[in-house]
UniProtKB/TrEMBL annotation:
It comes from Granulicella rosea. NCBIfam families: ParA_partition. This is Plasmid segregation oscillating ATPase ParF. Residues 4-56 form the AAA domain. The lineage of its organism: Bacteria, Pseudomonadati, Acidobacteriota, Terriglobia, Terriglobales. SUPFAM superfamilies: P-loop containing nucleoside triphosphate hydrolases. InterPro entries: AAA_dom (IPR025669), DNA_Partitioning_ATPase (IPR050678), McdA (IPR048089), P-loop_NTPase (IPR027417).
Amino acid sequence: MPVTIAVANQKGGCGKTTTCMNLAGGLAAAGFKVLVVDADPQGSATEWRNRSEESLLHFDVIAMATSSIHKELPRIIANSTYEVAIIDCPPGTETKGFGTVTRSALLAADFVLIPSRPTPIDFLATAIMIPVLNDVALIKPEQRVYLLLNAKHSNNRLGKAAKDGAIAMFSNQGVEIGILESELHDRTPFAESPAAGQTVVEFAPSSKAAEEILNLTREVIEKCLTAQ
């Protein structure tokens, strides 16, 4: 059965598209047939794909910024050879506007990956998602949710204490939120690779950024794909 992962956070600028596209690149490099669903009306994932005349990405990207993702996407992947679908969600989880798209994406997902910058303010903004995650858990109690620390700065005190802060913030919130061991740092290839229409795995294969994505890929395979 294909696995669907929603990359979601109500806060803009937390690295959803960067995480989504690079994870897709890592999974494709590991041999999985991957579909990225661009559910953000801004179309960042689609623009990333269109950066070159012929896509340099080793996975497919489709646009689906609609509140019926949970109805449309299962039909698409059921009639395909895709093994993994990753949804790049828009900002917001409110019950109107973009929030209806995110809610639909969460309803379609087997797993939810929440990228968050490692600051108290970002954790507070991310925690706004908890009520909608709890609502979805009533419908999909088997769904698993993971927090990914993103855009870390290794050498500051805030970055070093980030994991402890995340555990404290997201424990005992109703829905269980696991903290991934993998972390992504604020590295130049993450900013440069979209302009080339590539993920960091192809753009800078020997970089620390690519190493972090491959670590994340292995953890996602272990937690979300081989655990099925």
